[in-house]
Amino acid sequence: MTTNSPASIWVKSSYSTQNGGSCVEWAPSNVTATGIIPVRDSKRPTGPVLMISADAFAGLVRLARSSAL
């Protein structure tokens, strides 16, 4: 984990709601330059950031879309 980067452009999950839904944000602009995707809690935008590989992020998306949750 790392601290939040103010230069990142964050994209909120389509499952997030305006009422504080429990979802995440990610910064896709970092993937091209680093191959790493920053992910954070959308309710804590100044909180810690999890840095994961593009493959790991794809796995998270597959899991979120599956009926296994």
UniProtKB/TrEMBL annotation:
Organism of provenance: Streptomyces uncialis
Domain of life: Bacteria
InterPro entries: DUF397
Sequence ranges assigned to domain DUF397 in this UniProt record: 10-64
Identification of the protein by name: DUF397 domain-containing protein
